[in-house]
Amino acid sequence: MTAPTRIALVGCGAIGTSVLELLRGDAALKVVAVVVPADGIAAARPIAQRLAPDAQPGTAVPAEGIDLVVETAGHAAIEQHVLPALARGTPCVVASVGALSAPGFAEKLEAAAVAGGTQVQLIPGAIGAIDALAAARIGGLDSVRYTGRKPPHAWKGTPAEQGRDLDALSSETVIFEGSAREAALLYPKNANVAATVSLAGLGLDRTLVRLIADPATAENVHTVEADGAFGSFELTMRNKPLAANPKTSALTVYSAVRALRNRVAALAI
């Protein structure tokens, strides 16, 4: 019998916990470490005991006994845990793709993977057609535009609150229009999709982004439009948010689990 892939999960918030729930009982994938800040150990311990009894909560990725690192905790976690793991030669899966909007950060991540002779995988998360967009780039892309539409409460705690009362909106309101790089920097917890689309396509500075607060929707609606030598496509996805975090689509969790299962599957698509 093939030994299971030993995983260090970085983050035990809404996404991390949901990943643990879906991996519970998977014979091929075994979470053996849950990495959180020191002040998060107490909260992570009962979650790990319930969903991954063999996992030990800690503040760092173990230097040995880990086959794969999975990040679900944001930019700081990538700096603190993913970069050193890559340099040691441990492959990593990254969910917080918006972090790569910081100048030079994508290159830094790639350099760490090269130094360790390994690979870092960026998951599509809440958006589809990333394979088609990346393939279309080979033939040449002319334009790519991403529109993100979410209910007003999903934009709370962001610059969208400046100068407007989100609870009082009665019609759709454009809260941001600009480049993917600007969107990911201003709305880091909401704009992972914009960064993913841009990295697969025309880049952070040439991908146009529009973010909308819409009281008429209860879903996270993502639309990608692309034109190029291949032709054109328009994709719209209406994603249900995670119950524990309305800023995140449930599909983000499924995308992470799919990436993990593909790494151990005999037949992957």
Summarize the structure in words.
With 269 residues, the chain is of the alpha/beta class. The chain has two domains: 5-122, NAD(P)-binding Rossmann-like Domain (Rossmann fold, 3-Layer(aba) Sandwich); 130-247, 2-Layer Sandwich (Dihydrodipicolinate Reductase, domain 2). It is 32% helix and 28% strand. It has eight helices and 13 strands. It has helices spanning 14-23, 41-51, 75-87, 105-116, 130-139, 180-186, 192-200, 250-264, and strands at residues 5-10, 29-35, 56-58, 68-71, 92-94, 120-122, 141-150, 173-179, 208-213, 220-228, 231-239, 241-242, 245-249. The chain has a six-stranded parallel β-sheet, sandwiched between helices. A five-stranded mixed β-sheet has the order 8-9-7-10-11. Helix 1 (14-23) packs across helix 8 and helix 3 packs parallel to helix 4. The longest helix is centred in the C-terminal third of the chain and has 15 residues, at 250-264. It is globular and about 50 Å long. The relative contact order is 0.16.
